[in-house]
Amino acid sequence: MSEGLVGGEGFAIDASVIKADANRARGVPGTEVIDWHKGDGPTRAVREYLAALEENNPTSDGAGNPPDPPAAPKNVSLTDPAARWTAAPGGPAFYAYSTNYLIDLQAGIIVDVEATPAHRTQEVDSTKTMIDRVKERFDLKPTRLVGDTAYGTGPMLGWMVEDKRIAPHVPVWDRTERKDGTLSSSEFFWDEQANQYRCPEGHALLSDRRRFTKPRDRITKDGTIVYRANQHDCSGCAMKQRCCPNMTHRKITRSVHERSRDVAREIAKTPQYTQSRRDRKKVEMLFAHLKRILKLDRLRLRGLSGARDEFLLAATAQNLRRMGKWLMASQQAARPTTA
Predict the structure, then answer these.
(1) DSSP summary character for residue 258
(2) Per-residue pLDDT tens for 106-145?
(3) What is the domain count for the chain?
(4) Which structural domain, as residue segments, surrounds residue 327?
């Protein structure tokens, strides 16, 4: 930062999968009950895993009710249970962790690293941890954050736009566009003041068609609100076969973070977004260097703390290398030429 390599204006986020030090043949199905205390006792990696389970899964939800059980992984390693069973497209499955990089786009300096099991949800959630940590440690907060589609979910975009006031230079994770030739939700007009959609024929889609003494938000567990057309309007509509041929009336599901999704869509139309897509290659190049030059394609240590140590040391080495090249070039450029 003192040498000007970190600008603090734009950050990029991405994750890369690294194989764990765990034999893929030494695992059991995640639904199987395992006695971790048999033999000579649990190893450090197992002790860390059990402690994390107890911390993240309390015996009650705070109201005296048992919490929902966590989703069981497909396979669990007996030597490194925190590693996640995963597979690359077209390849065999293996146990792995993910190294998550948050880089400054000015010179490609890594400003934070987070180790997670190789699971998409945990990779995306690590973004919040790193952004908050960089703000606390270095008083840096980017004005834009660049990422791939994995970071373009509604809750993530809502966190960027509504909570952090960060411009999301991220493709929107969007499954609303239909591929069967029928009308997509983008062809319906959204009326913010009336809290309703209007179809191409002018009919209203509402979340509520009658008033309640106590208003209801109608938000589902997935963080969406369902807007429905009147069945009578749809049955006599000339566009029914193009709109909802297999349903009695049309429904549209709207995310509670749709405003943030719209912000990301508008940013995607700008020249700055096009440049951000090019800049994102800087973090991909760091992962290629990590695996091909530093040879960190498999971990030597076990457990999440072991993965964290290796990822942090590797990122430190990459930063030192980048700083050396950058500062050497700056010194040579500033050196006066001799006749």
Answers:
(1) H
(2) 999 999 999 999 999 999 999 999 999 999 999 999 999 9
(3) 2
(4) 10-62+69-147+280-334
